[in-house]
Amino acid sequence: MSFYLQYAEGLGGKILEPMCGSGRLFVPMMEHGLDIEGFDASEFMLESLYRKCNEKKLEPKVWQNFTHKLEKKNTYNLVIIPVGSLSLITDSNQLKISLEQIRESLVDGGVFVFELLTMIILEGRKTNRWGESSRTTPDGSKIILSCMDLPVENNIGESICRYEMVVDNQIQHTEIETYELRYFEKNEIDFLLNEIGFSKINHVTNCKHANSNECMVYECHK
User: Fold this and answer.
1) What angle (nearest 5°) sits at the alpha carbon of residue 175, between those of residues 182 and 122?
2) Contact status, residue 11 vs residue 78, Cβ threshold 8 Å
3) Hey, what domains does the chain have and what are their CATH numbers?
4) Which residues of the chain have pLDDT under 50?
5) Is the dihedral of CA 94, 68, 101, 114 positive or negative?
6) Which of 17, 102, 110, 112 has its CA 20 to 30 A from that of 138?
7) What Cα–Cα distance (Å) separates residue 212 from each residue in 21, 78, 99?
8) Which residues sit opposite 181 in a β-bridge?
9) Which residues contact 114 (CB under 8 A, 6 or more apart)?
10) How far is the CA of 21 from the CAs of 12, 187, 193, in angstroms?
C-alpha cells in the first residue's frame, strides 16, 4: 500500500481504482482517510468488498462496471490499477478503449499508475497440473482452492479454478471459475500509451513491492 499511498498523498484530490476487486488495496486506502472510488465487473467481488467495509464501519463509493465503459471526465487526480489486474483485459480493442477512458477520467496533470504482468513470470510455470491450497473461515468451515494453468497461446493464458466448501468433512458447495490473463513483452504497451495521448510515461524501477522482471510498473501523466 505504501507505494500507492505516496502518489495519493503527493497528488491529493480524488482517486479511482478500476477493477478494485474485493478491496485488498481499496479498503486500507479508505481507512487511511483518502477520497477513493472504485468499480469492478464482478458482483461477487463487490459483495466481498462491501462485507469488509461493513465490518469496519466504512461506506465505500463503488459500483459495478467494466473499464472500457467508464464514463468520467476530468474527475480524478490519481487512477490506480495494482497487482496486474489490467492483464485481465485480454481483448486488444477493449484494452485501448479502457486506457482512453482512464485518461479522459483524469484531471489535467493527473496520474495513472498501473502494473502489467510480463512473459517472464511464465518461465518455469507448470501447466495442465492442479495445484491446491486451503483456508479456514471464521465459522470453522474450510475453503479448498484448486487451480490449473493451461498453456499460453498468443500471450494469453487461461486458468481453471475450483472452489470447494467443506463442513464437517463433507463438501457442501462447489464453484468453478475460469479466467484469462494477457502477458506483455517488455515495452509492448508503450506505443499504445503514447498513441492515446499520455504526455509523460515513466517505467517505475524502484518499486519494492513488485518484481521488476515479472511485473512492469507504469506512471502515466495526462
Assistant:
1) 25
2) yes
3) 2-118+184-221 (3.40.50.150), 121-180 (2.20.130)
4) none
5) negative
6) 17
7) 23, 22, 22
8) 157
9) 79, 80, 81, 82, 86, 217, 218, 220
10) 23, 26, 24
